[in-house]
Amino acid sequence: MTETIVKIDLSKSAYENDMIHNRWHPDIPMVATVKPGDDFIMECYDWTGGQIENNDNADDVRDVDLTQVHFLSGPVGVEGAEPGDLLVVDILDIGAFQESQWGFNGFFSKQNGGGFLTEHFPDAQKSIWDFNGMFTKSRHIPGVEFAGLIHPGLIGCLPSKDLLDTWNEREKELYDTNPDRVPTLANLPYADTAHMGRMKPDEAKVAAAEGARTVPPREHGGNCDIKDLSRGSKVYFPVYVKGGGLSVGDLHFSQGDGEITFCGAIEMAGWIHMRVNLVKNGMEMYGVKNPIFKPSPIKPVYDDYVIFEGISVDEDGGQHFLDVNVAYRQACLNAIEFLTKFGYSKAQGYALLGCAPVQGHISGVVDVPNACATLWLPTEIFDFDINPTAEGPKKMVDGTIDIPLSKDKE
Amino acid sequence: MTETIVKIDLSKSAYENDMIHNRWHPDIPMVATVKPGDDFIMECYDWTGGQIENNDNADDVRDVDLTQVHFLSGPVGVEGAEPGDLLVVDILDIGAFQESQWGFNGFFSKQNGGGFLTEHFPDAQKSIWDFNGMFTKSRHIPGVEFAGLIHPGLIGCLPSKDLLDTWNEREKELYDTNPDRVPTLANLPYADTAHMGRMKPDEAKVAAAEGARTVPPREHGGNCDIKDLSRGSKVYFPVYVKGGGLSVGDLHFSQGDGEITFCGAIEMAGWIHMRVNLVKNGMEMYGVKNPIFKPSPIKPVYDDYVIFEGISVDEDGGQHFLDVNVAYRQACLNAIEFLTKFGYSKAQGYALLGCAPVQGHISGVVDVPNACATLWLPTEIFDFDINPTAEGPKKMVDGTIDIPLSKDKE
Amino acid sequence: MTETIVKIDLSKSAYENDMIHNRWHPDIPMVATVKPGDDFIMECYDWTGGQIENNDNADDVRDVDLTQVHFLSGPVGVEGAEPGDLLVVDILDIGAFQESQWGFNGFFSKQNGGGFLTEHFPDAQKSIWDFNGMFTKSRHIPGVEFAGLIHPGLIGCLPSKDLLDTWNEREKELYDTNPDRVPTLANLPYADTAHMGRMKPDEAKVAAAEGARTVPPREHGGNCDIKDLSRGSKVYFPVYVKGGGLSVGDLHFSQGDGEITFCGAIEMAGWIHMRVNLVKNGMEMYGVKNPIFKPSPIKPVYDDYVIFEGISVDEDGGQHFLDVNVAYRQACLNAIEFLTKFGYSKAQGYALLGCAPVQGHISGVVDVPNACATLWLPTEIFDFDINPTAEGPKKMVDGTIDIPLSKDKE
Amino acid sequence: MTETIVKIDLSKSAYENDMIHNRWHPDIPMVATVKPGDDFIMECYDWTGGQIENNDNADDVRDVDLTQVHFLSGPVGVEGAEPGDLLVVDILDIGAFQESQWGFNGFFSKQNGGGFLTEHFPDAQKSIWDFNGMFTKSRHIPGVEFAGLIHPGLIGCLPSKDLLDTWNEREKELYDTNPDRVPTLANLPYADTAHMGRMKPDEAKVAAAEGARTVPPREHGGNCDIKDLSRGSKVYFPVYVKGGGLSVGDLHFSQGDGEITFCGAIEMAGWIHMRVNLVKNGMEMYGVKNPIFKPSPIKPVYDDYVIFEGISVDEDGGQHFLDVNVAYRQACLNAIEFLTKFGYSKAQGYALLGCAPVQGHISGVVDVPNACATLWLPTEIFDFDINPTAEGPKKMVDGTIDIPLSKDKE
């Protein structure tokens, strides 16, 4: 029977568990050591460490303490792993705990992190998703059910000290260009809420002050939020410290490309089953800077889509130069508008794009001045037909249900 | 037998054919009128109108006159089409001419348009691709062969006068922010090389001065360069003028997401077979601003990929804020580096990413400050195995062949 | 939390559990009643009720008591279900028990049931498969690993008395044409080893004498062994008795089309999570005699195959008339021969065709006198490349390992 | 430009073209010789050589002379091909002639060949299919349109004299068991209508008396009618004579597994573009007896199905022993019954199963006494939704159109 090398207790704070950490630092001690070829299971808190509850009130999303995120399980050492190697991780399976078959999606208040469409959705909102075997649906968004494309939002190896310094420097530099921006330009080290795993208190105090926040994806992978890193995929991670130090968390039951709602995917606590191997000296042999990976043979296939285009002209008519973000934002807004024709609120539409396995493609990035991006909305996740017809759309959702909203406190 | 309503003669200049135009203007006369439900064929020049030849010299790519592009066939009027409708276009088939079974891909000189990676590839280069039935390979890039994902790079309806004015204003505004930039920020109207189809000379002269250039994708679709608009797909185009006025051109035998080489895909002359229908008042009924479409059931399926991540830290270590372009550029550069390990030159790698059906996904756009993009490289297009192994890569390409390069003239 | 309405204890005999039965009879009492729309979990013994063990000895396969099979969980009643309805079953998930992450495949001795190729493999053999998350591999067949296409081999509703009588009559009639045949032509009712669930002893005794054996698929579905009835699929079962009476068992981690090894797939104990609904009067409305179903969106996709043809000329050169069984047997033998070129024993090849998600297509059934069948072998399940090349196959398996065999007792 | 090595003139009889033949014989002279690595085009008559016309009358199907079929193009010699080699054929593309964009499907009269369901459809009927680019629809079967899965029904190399003798002997032996059967058990050599290509008259006369008929699939491939041998696939054919002698014909625009209507698929005249290579001594190296092949990356993907089960109990309740033909016949009849609920005639349903890309799977062949087969009907080919719902089916086809029928002459 496969060993579970990190166990958690959802009824206790993540801070009490020394196999958890929420900052990146080369000196966080390994919680276990495995051999190449081994497979093992790690249990994970949801990314907020349990701050969000299964109820119909978005206050917890509004009041979330984002300095705590993300709670990661690990790091796990791999015998023989050395800087320059590639750590090959087969994601063999992922699941929610039997007693916790649900997840959440939310929009943060613009004052507390926001999201991709925060100008349009400035208030905290959340939706709860129940898991039914391999499928999920939400009591807050009627008429949809889909199979989970379960994946870890955050996974990677510990950075070296040099790499950590590089991260801190470049992000500080950006931050300093507009330190008062809301939402912030970057999340700098913040010691108060750091959880440094098994580091001794004195060392932890020092490390916490320089430990990188877990929010952005970086060279090592990290918070890539790539929906396709799903169970069945095979990932090659750069190794920067002896032993590698693989940490993982932020499990998602499902997510759309872009994780546009920021909070984020369908977020859940659960477990992940992995196997590790090494490609010695793989970084140089294959010229690898960021992780590379191979897709899973066992992902949900929703093959029929309605696809929305967006170009880099913003919603006020402003012309941007080859800006894919603006283009993708337009594609998202176009999809949300389309969904309202079937009776959904805009917030329900936004949540759906964050949760369902929508694809976001970079379609054109050279035809000055407009980038073109496409948002692929799978039609088969709906209980009714959303394909355009000559007769026009039917209101299939009656508008009596919306997703909970909590206004900012005065 | 299906009628060919636009015929072309590749041995003659596109300017001599009055069923061709290379600017967008509401007053360009229809070249034919069809009924809803009709299917028909239109022949198309390649986007440059024959400026690039099937040889091993990139001078023609270096010296291309980009003020001439793109040569479009049409516009075709549809009975009953009125502003506010959606014109439904089934792309039934697309092909190259029997006597012209080849296409080209190129990088423009940085001084003449450049491309997505123009800082890395500042000189004009080109590769020629031979078509073998549904497949293609290039004498300039050994070891790859793949099925065509044939599609029109450019298709859409005529703009209204209001829409045209909006385009010209916003693009001029951007252009004026840095009129000396090389490459240019936007291509403004340019009368000298305009081809206004069947407009009478006097009217054409006036219209040419305000006709929008065909380079960028815009609200009507236009030069979207969406590889998935392939034969078998169904597209819903906004209608802005009576009759719609559907024009099409810039046929591609294959292209990767982003069309990163700008010149661009595997470009070809050929024909397109389409069927049209109407959704009356569809723009309002479905809330459609940009075209929406449905994918084809008959596209090539390359299901095994090596996937490269990129984040919005540029190649000099500069930190950008959630910039998907920077992230996708990194993913592309990572893929090119990887390909060199098998013996390809960087230019061959770059060309491959522009030509082969690679996918570009917007993976994360909210995890400040780093956007994350992924480049999906299909493994099955190669004659050899490019999957990473513990043994490392083998040089399968011996480097004796490269793609032609032409330095800028002094 | 979803209710588990049938629980089992693997350490106890299936005969001790009154929520289990191994015969079909209309009077077997429901073990629970659910409402349309409900989802629930049922635990299941492996089809033999635990006769086969996780070891390297095939004696248990040789000595299996096939009069006991299959041990089914249920029947479950559905409120409002009446004869003539269709019971809609969504298979939401299926899994092995955490403490029992393995399965078995075997060939029965020709004297005890045989299999599709029993003339070529007359002795009992078995292979053990370990489950690693969503994947499996066997210590008896090196070089292969694949994702589970998990499904119930046997599922359906209780027959009416009339239907039961029809079954018994027609099978007896066939049996009587050659009662001494080995293997047998049909398995007739057999009271000695019958387990009639919660029937009272007296009634059970009578019913056992007429209860249909569970071996063949019949009008109600039953032992269809359709690999595509996997988790995520939706099945419409005919209802013959009030309440429906849904029973299920014979869980398979994976299986090839045809279940050619008879014992059978990768057989396992585990649990199944289902949701039920009704289409009232659906049998007549849709003209349904046998179950119909829809495939899952979340099945493993192995898209690259080597495909073997077979025609209805047998291995001795005998000409058969449009016989698909003979044709498929040839295709299977051709595939096994091919696999030996890479170092596998014929028995390993046979086991692979029974376990891996191979497809069996009926390709031609009208071109007298030869039927044509095809066997699709997915290439991606192998650790090495099995595609034919000009260089010829390499022995990738060294022949030191074979699957255990137990000769018949004298 | 690719060379067309066999040209045909649809206005002339196939008998006048010496690059055509309709029997298999080792001595038929090559019509051209190509080198390994070459690609070339061959034009092909429809299988009947033009006996069936594009009209609304089934008399031509009733009166067809089946002793003439199939008219094949070739044989083509390949330099260096020797007995024991594998001839690797890449099917690069296939198409209908521009002036002949249509095909036919028919049921033969029971007295003249019949079909898989001839007891249910004893009269001659036909449907005409128009091709619209990559798609087809029929004026005789409203409400369906689908993409072509274009393939050659018949392709293979010339047999050796020994192999020819084996064929003739075993088929004669079967024929003699019931020489009066209608339809016949086998089609024996028949000199009167033989077309022996470029053989000299005297030699042709002798060879015609022993030339094998082209109807059944055999060891060399031949009339396999495998829908998946579509453009983009790669086939490995056994070589039996020096030069190989590749012949091809019986092009199909689309076909369902089993080609159950016998006449057959959507039959058409057209051209095929192929590339050839050799695996020297491949038959022994890979243990190949029948052709093996790899599927195309560019076939139509219809991923949503309603799937029908059938078991080996015939329509009169008769019990058969593990007979896949009976099981598949039941699955087909079940699907036809289902389609009538939407308004189709049974004949329209039958024709659809012969023409559309339905799959036929061998699901279970070991659970005595019932085989289980499944018929997969793609839902996306219909203009309306055929999925079962609680509301029941709607008559979407009004029954005013049926497919033409011609009664047998008295």
From TrEMBL, chains A, B, C, D:
Keywords: Hydrolase. Its EC number is 3.5.1.49. GO terms for molecular function: formamidase activity. Coiled coil: none annotated. It comes from the Bacteria. Pfam families: FmdA_AmdA. Gene3D superfamilies: Acetamidase/Formamidase-like domains. The keyword Magnesium does not apply. This is Formamidase. The lineage of its organism: Bacteria, Pseudomonadati, Pseudomonadota, Gammaproteobacteria, Cellvibrionales. The gene is fmdA.
